[in-house]
Amino acid sequence: MIMSAFDLDFEAAIARLAVALITLWLAWKVWSFLKPREQHSLRSVAIVVLGDIGRSPRMMYHAESFAENDFFTEVIGYGGSAPIPSLERPRVKIRYLPDPPRLHFFPFIVSAPIKVVLQLLYIFVELFTIPNPPEFILVQNPPSIPTLAIVWLVARIRGCKVIIDWHNLGYSILAMRFPKQGERHPLVRVAKWFERTFGRTAYAHLFVTVAMRDFLVKEWDLQGIKVVLHDRPPARFHQSTPQGIHELFVRKLEKSLSTQPALRGFLPPSNPPYSSAFTTTSGPASTSTSPPPPTSALDSIYAEVKAPSLRPDRPALLVSSTSWTPDEDFSILLAALGAYDARAAASPRGTLPKVLVILTGKGPLREKYMKEVGELQKKWKWVRCVSMWLEAEDYPVLLGAADLGICLHVSSSKLDLPMKVVDMFGCALPVCALDFDCLDELVKNGKNGLIFKDAEQLSEQLETLLVGFPNCPRLAELRSYLRPTGDRPTSPPNLPPSHELSEDVWESWDANWARHVRPLILRDVRRNEPTT
Fold it and tell me: Which residues cross the membrane (predicted)?
C-alpha cells in the first residue's frame, strides 16, 4: 500500500512536470509566433481596403504612387468597380476578397458579428499568403472593425510597419445607425474603444485634415509619425476640352441620356456624331434631327465639319457625386432645384438657363431618392435630374465638362473632407458645398466655391451663379481661382514634409504625396531621419 501511494505521488509529479513543460513550450511557441521580427521585404507594401477597390480613389492613388516609387504593391479589397487603368502594371497585384454573405434576414446585432468574423478570416489569409512579408501595411480607416486588429496582429507576426490612413472615424459612422443614443449606444462605445486601442500605436498616421490630426493626437494620444495628407486629384483630373466633351457625350453618354424618359423634349436637338446636346462640329444644320443625307451629299457636309465647340443653347450642367448614404441629405438639393425651377419660370426668358443635374455614384439610398426625383420633375419645366455610373476614365471628363459641382456631404465626425470636391477642383470646377466644421480647409467661400447652410441658400446661389448663362461672370470668377492642373507648381524636392504651401497653390496628388509620404517610407529607421 505504501509503494502504491508512492507510485501515485510520483506519477502525479511527473504529470504535473509534463503539463508545466508543455505549457512552457506552448507559451514559447506563442511568443515566437507573435514577437516582432525583421524579416520583411524592403520596398514592398500591402494596402488594405475593406471596400470596393474601384470606389476607393485615395487608396488607388496611394497604390499608384507606391508603384511609381518602385514598391511591389499588393492591394487587398473587394471587387465591383474597375480600378483605375494605371494600376495595371507588373509591380501591382490586386487580391480580391470574397464577398461577405448577405444576412438581411438577421438583425444587425447578429449579422454584424458574423460579417466581422468572416472579414477577419479573409484578410488574415490574404495578408499571410503574401510570399514575402511587406515592409509596410497601409490600412484605410474606417472601417475599423476588424481591419485595425488584424493588421496589428499580422504586423506583429511578420515584422511589418503599419501606416493608418485616417479618412474618418468608424465609431462616428456607426453612431448614425442609432440616432436616439448616438455615441452613448453600447455598440458604438465598443467600436470607439476598439478603434482607439488598435489605432493608437502605428509606425505612422496619415490624416485628411489638420482638424482630424489635432483631435486624435489630443483625445487618443496617437503614437508614431503624424502627417497631414490632404486629398488631391491626380494629374488626369483637369478641365475638359470641347473635343473631349463632344466625345464623352456622343460616344459614351448619348445612349444613356436618350433612353431617359424625363429628358425627352428637354435637351436641345442633336445629330450624332456631328452634334450632341452640349457640343456641335459645325453650324446650326448639325443639330438637325432629320435623317442623314444621301452619300452623294456627304462630301459637302464633311467640308463643313469643324472642331467641336460648346453650343450656346446648351443647358447648364451640374454634377453631384455621391455614395448615396445617410451622410448626404438629398432633400436639400431637391428642394433647392424646385425653388430654382419656380424662379426660372417666373424670370424673363433667357435670364436663367435650363439645368441638367447628373448624379453619379452607387449606394443604398439611390433608388429611394431617384423615385422621389421622378415624381418631382413631372412638374418641373427648367430642371432635370438623372443618375448614372461612370467608369474611372470617363468620370474626370464629366467633371471637366460641368459648369458647377454640388456637394451635400456632411462628415459624421466633422473631421474629414469630401474627396468629390477635391476631384472637382482638380477639374477647375467650382462647387456649392453644404457647410460643416473644417470644410474651410478645402472650400474657400467666395474664392473657389460657395458654402450654403440650407436649400433656400443653395437655390439663391444657383440663381446668382447661372444668371446670363453661358456668360456667367461670377461663375467664371470662381473658376479662375482654380488653376489648371498643368499650371500648378510642383514643390521643391528638398521641402520638409511639415512645410505647408500657401492655400493659393493647388498641388496635384503626385506632388503632394511626394512631399509628405515619400520621405516617410524612405526614412532610415536606425537614424530616424530620411535617407539620402
Answer: 12-34, 103-125
